[in-house]
Amino acid sequence: MESNNPLVSICMPAYNAGKYITEAVESVIKQTYTNWELIIVNDGSIDDTAVQLEKLTDKRIKVYNQQNKGQCIAANKAYSLSKGGLIKFMDADDLISADYLKSQVAVVDGKTDVIASAAWGRFYNNDINTFNVNTDIITADVEPINWLKTAMHNKQVMLQCALWLIPRQILEKAGLWHNDLSLINDFEFFIRVLLNAKLIKFAPDAMLYYRSGLDNSLSALKSRKGAQSAFTSISLGTSYLLNAEESAFVKSVAANCFQYFAYTFYPYHKGLVRQAEVKVKELGGASAPFPAGGYTRVVCTVIGWKLTKDLKRLFSC
């Protein structure tokens, strides 16, 4: 891999992204770093995603159409078609700043054991004017296990696809996306990938604009397949952490991951919630507070979080 001007392969799975994919692609085309290829896998979209992709004329963009097989299989397909020494997975509805690739390529600096990270923030309702930068960003260059311990301490970690620029050698060692996962599939994947690096380095001029508020969250919560995927992803991801460091601190981090699962999926999947609570107990207990504010927090302290959720669900029907 040439250290001064390596080819960056951006792998973008797309499913029903017709409303957003043009903006996402334009943020790639506007990069000040120009030695890139964008591989888009249209994963059986039933909206106008294919129509929008037909409008793209940049020769650095390659489009592959397949029947709907899921995000992980689409991401792996895009990777299989890529040629670059540096890989970025990117969602089809997010945006990256103009100097994103330039900054990340610079901090990787030709090394095959370094992953570049970036700053990020959310915007809502497709309105970039609502964008707010996340202030809880790790800007130091740190070993992967320490990055993860810091990022996951007393909070739910965000491992958005486009945050990372990854040398191909690391992916060859870590392995690709887990084909059977759907919901929070990035949790398992990026913990596994990050732990196969020697160092995580922050790119100061890279900003990810993360589009939020699109999914039907209630449908996702009710999906048994999604809940099972989330539980499996958390189980695998936390096992990687514990294999890297079986300390009391990491056990606490892992326990909190299962506790957040319980908070999220109760009462829709009580069997999986019980399994998560067993994991919490085996790991020594969780400290993650129930995510609530105002009157809900007060009620929760009196009657407990499960009954609080039951009542809120009852009165929202």
Overall SS class: alpha/beta
Count of individual domains: 3
Number of strands: 9
* Largest sheet, spatial ordering of strands: 3-2-1-4-8
Helix content: 40-55%
Taken as a percent bin, the fraction of beta residues is 15-25%
Roughly how many Å apart are the termini? 57 Å
What does this structure look like?
- This protein is an alpha/beta fold and 317 residues long.
- The chain folds into three domains: 205 residues, Spore Coat Polysaccharide Biosynthesis Protein SpsA, Chain A, CATH 3.90.550.10; 71 residues; 31 residues, no CATH class.
- The strands form two sheets. The chain has a five-stranded mixed beta sheet, with helices on both faces. A four-stranded mixed beta sheet has the order 5-9-6-7.
- Helix 7 runs parallel beside helix 9, helix 9 runs antiparallel to helix 10 and helix 12 crosses helix 13.
- The model has no long low-confidence stretch (mean pLDDT 94).
Topology, please?
Layout: E1 8-14, H1 21-29, E2 36-43, H2 49-54, E3 61-66, H3 71-80, E4 86-89, E5 95-96, H4 100-108, E6 114-124, E7 127-133, H5 144-152, E8 166-167, H6 168-174, H7 185-194, E9 199-212, H8 217-222, H9 224-244, H10 248-265, H11 270-282, H12 294-303, H13 305-316
Helix pairs in contact: 7-9, 9-10, 10-11, 12-13
